[in-house]
């Protein structure tokens, strides 16, 4: 059974940083591309980042490019999202998802709220 558990969210001020983590189990993490998807209140899911299985090829949506960085530790089966220069419009529930794109299995999500 695919299990993904996100952590690291919280309430921060604009300009702050957070690092999200996603612990994976139940599938071959080291062979799987992985994505980050977020969903703001009243909005549909937004695919913001992805990383290929080998950790070299990455994708960023324009809304986060230059501010967020995705990485992974295949030995520990962990996926990360370093988020810098956070803005109020980054407020959302953040999910990690298996695969390249927004449609794979997701975890329960972690809330990120950016507010002054």
Short recap of the structure:
By secondary structure, the protein is mainly beta. 0% of the residues lie in helices and 47% in strands.
Write the layout of secondary structure elements.
Blueprint: E1 3-7, E2 10-12, E3 18-25, E4 34-39, E5 46-51, E6 58-60, E7 68-73, E8 78-83, E9 92-98, E10 110-114
Parallel strand pairs: 2-10
Antiparallel strand pairs: 1-3, 3-8, 4-5, 4-9, 5-6, 7-8, 9-10
Structure description:
- By secondary structure, this protein is an all-beta fold.
- It has no helices and 10 strands.
- The chain has strands at 3-7, 10-12, 18-25, 34-39, 46-51, 58-60, 68-73, 78-83, 92-98, 110-114.
- The strands form 2 sheets. It has a 6-stranded mixed beta sheet, with no helix packed on it. The protein has a 4-stranded antiparallel beta sheet with strand order 1-3-8-7, with no helix packed on it.
- A hairpin with a 6-residue loop joins β5 (46-51) and β6.
- It is globular, with a radius of gyration of 13 Å.
- 32% of the residues are buried.
- The model has no long low-confidence stretch (mean pLDDT 97).
Which descriptors apply to this entry?
4-stranded antiparallel β-sheet; globular; single chain; 116 residues
Q: How much is the radius of gyration in Å?
A: 13 Å
Helix and strand string, N-terminal first? EEEEEEEEEE
Uncertain runs are none
Question: Which percent range fits the helix content?
Answer: under 10%
Structural class, from secondary structure content? mainly beta
Strand arrangement across the biggest beta sheet: 2-10-9-4-5-6
């Amino acid at each position: 059974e695919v299990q993904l558990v996100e952590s690291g969210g919280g309430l921060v001020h604009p300009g702050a940083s957070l690092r999200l983590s996603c612990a994976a189990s139940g599938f071959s993490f080291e062979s799987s591309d992985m994505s980050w998807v977020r969903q703001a209140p009243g909005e549909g899911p937004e695919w913001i980042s992805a990383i290929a299985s080998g950790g070299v090829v990455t994708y960023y949506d324009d809304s986060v490019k230059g501010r967020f960085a995705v990485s992974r530790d295949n030995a520990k089966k962990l996926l990360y999202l370093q988020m810098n220069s956070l803005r109020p419009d980054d407020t959302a529930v953040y999910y990690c998802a298996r695969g390249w794109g927004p449609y794979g299995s997701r975890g329960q999500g972690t809330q990120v709220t950016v507010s002054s």
